[in-house]
């Protein structure tokens, strides 16, 4: 996660959002406002939710999110990335600016100084090429280690941190779903009536965007919805997807009318497929590089502790082979889905300058995304998959 330099205005009431996300005439862009929810709300699911970060010892549990007023009737809901934790090892080691030889798996709090205005990519409102430059936007930070989908308090044992003096056991608030319900309630109270909605996220946030898209669609059933998952292809193992510890450490909350009532029944690589098939009027898309180092590293960790993995012992080739297979399977099953598979090993594109410059698959990611946002189900033939010339090829397995 980027650590940013300045903070802008603060807002704690729903009345502030009414001015921030206009449903009436266009108004001038006034930048980003920080919102710190302080009370429990009744979410769209009918249950009570309170916002919080992880509560990792020594960190700030305060959850805040950001909103920007645009000049259109459209809305972006963006989920931030930042790793994940699910067992004693991974939850003992958060991202905390430690030396490179100390493992760091997830972001435990909202970093001080966060300001989405400092990002590039789809957050660069001053770039005339930005397809969402004039959209209203909500930025949902990530500080719960659960891909934004958890709703539980989990106790872990100190795995032996070499720097932090942790107690022998500690609790993590895996409350990403609760945070999302609070944010969505806040948006709905604003009175915004968007014509188009983009639900997007990078890395861990891509899973949040995919899994929570049905709730956004339920909140705005008359809006044209697009879901864009960036660097979040879900290549895991069956043991991880069904394990506790594992994905079930988080008590995952999924929209039952799309995903069913048992999260364990859906494999990680199938989350996008199920979401797209269950919402045929929405457009769905994934971006990834062919050998994303961060996704490969997490897959290697999962495969080592929650075997078996795929057929190839080479983790990078194994991940690539399964990733390509998942893209093709989702594309075959879901006519409302497209992918952009870029050359390289870097992780995420939506917050970076490469959103405008990456063109190894033909069009730039920006141009491909613009088509994604423009087309509906009556004109999807003009919105194509994009892959670099060698990206769909899996080399022979080798050590």
What does this structure look like?
There is one protein chain. The protein is an alpha/beta fold. It has one domain: Rossmann fold (3-Layer(aba) Sandwich), CATH 3.40.50.1820. It is built from eleven helices and 14 strands. It has helices spanning 14-20, 88-92, 176-189, 204-219, 238-242, 256-259, 271-278, 293-305, 315-333, 354-357, 365-374; strands at residues 10-11, 32-35, 41-42, 48-49, 65-68, 75-79, 136-140, 152-157, 169-174, 196-202, 224-230, 283-289, 337-342, 386-387. α4 (204-219) links the parallel β10 (196-202) and β11. α7 packs parallel to α9 (315-333) and α8 (293-305) crosses α9 (315-333). The longest helix is centred in the C-terminal third of the chain and has 19 residues, at 315-333. The chain is globular, with a radius of gyration of 20 Å. The model is unreliable at 1-30 (pLDDT under 50).
- Considering DSSP H and I runs of 4 or more, what fraction of the residues is helical? 25-40%
Order of helices and strands: EHEEEEEHEEEHEHEHHHEHHEHHE
- Here the CATH topology equals Rossmann fold
**Proportion in β-strands:** 15-25%
Number of strands: 14
Radius of gyration: 20 Å
Q: How many distinct helices? A: 11
């Amino acid at each position: 996660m980027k650590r940013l330099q300045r903070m802008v205005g603060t807002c704690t009431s729903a009345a502030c959002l009414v001015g921030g996300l206009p449903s009436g005439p266009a108004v001038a862009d006034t930048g980003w406002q920080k919102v710190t929810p302080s009370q429990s709300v009744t979410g769209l699911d009918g249950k009570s939710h309170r916002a919080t970060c992880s509560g990792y010892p020594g960190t700030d549990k305060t959850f805040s999110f950001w909103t920007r007023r645009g000049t259109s009737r459209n809305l972006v809901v963006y989920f931030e990335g930042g790793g994940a934790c699910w067992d004693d090892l991974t939850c003992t080691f958060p991202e905390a600016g430690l030396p490179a030889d100390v493992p760091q798996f997830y972001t435990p709090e909202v970093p001080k100084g966060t300001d989405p205005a400092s990002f590039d990519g789809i957050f660069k409102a001053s770039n005339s090429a930005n397809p969402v430059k004039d959209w209203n936007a909500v930025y949902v930070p990530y500080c719960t280690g659960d891909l934004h989908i958890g709703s539980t308090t989990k106790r872990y044992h100190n795995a032996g941190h070499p720097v932090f003096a942790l107690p022998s056991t500690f609790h993590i608030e895996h409350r990403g779903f609760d945070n999302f319900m609070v944010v969505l309630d806040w948006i709905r109270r604003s009175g915004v009536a968007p014509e188009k909605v983009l639900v997007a996220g990078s890395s861990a946030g891509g899973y949040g965007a995919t899994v929570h898209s049905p709730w956004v669609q339920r909140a705005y059933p008359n809006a044209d919805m697009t879901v864009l998952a960036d660097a979040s292809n879900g290549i895991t193992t069956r043991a991880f997807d069904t394990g506790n510890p594992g994905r079930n450490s988080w008590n995952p909350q999924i929209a039952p009318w799309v995903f069913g009532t048992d999260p364990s029944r859906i494999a990680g690589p199938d989350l996008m497929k199920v979401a797209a098939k269950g919402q045929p009027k929405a457009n769905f898309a994934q971006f990834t590089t062919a050998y994303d180092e961060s996704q490969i590293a997490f897959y290697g960790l999962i495969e080592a502790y929650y075997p078996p993995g795929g057929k190839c012992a080479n983790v990078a080739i194994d991940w690539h082979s399964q990733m390509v297979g998942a893209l093709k399977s989702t594309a075959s099953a879901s006519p409302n889905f497209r992918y952009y598979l870029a050359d390289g090993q870097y992780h995420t594109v939506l917050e970076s300058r490469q959103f405008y410059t990456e063109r190894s698959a033909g069009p730039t990611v920006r141009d491909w995304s613009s088509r994604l946002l423009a087309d509906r189900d009556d004109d999807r033939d003009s919105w194509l998959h994009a892959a670099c010339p060698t990206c769909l090829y899996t080399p022979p397995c080798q050590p």
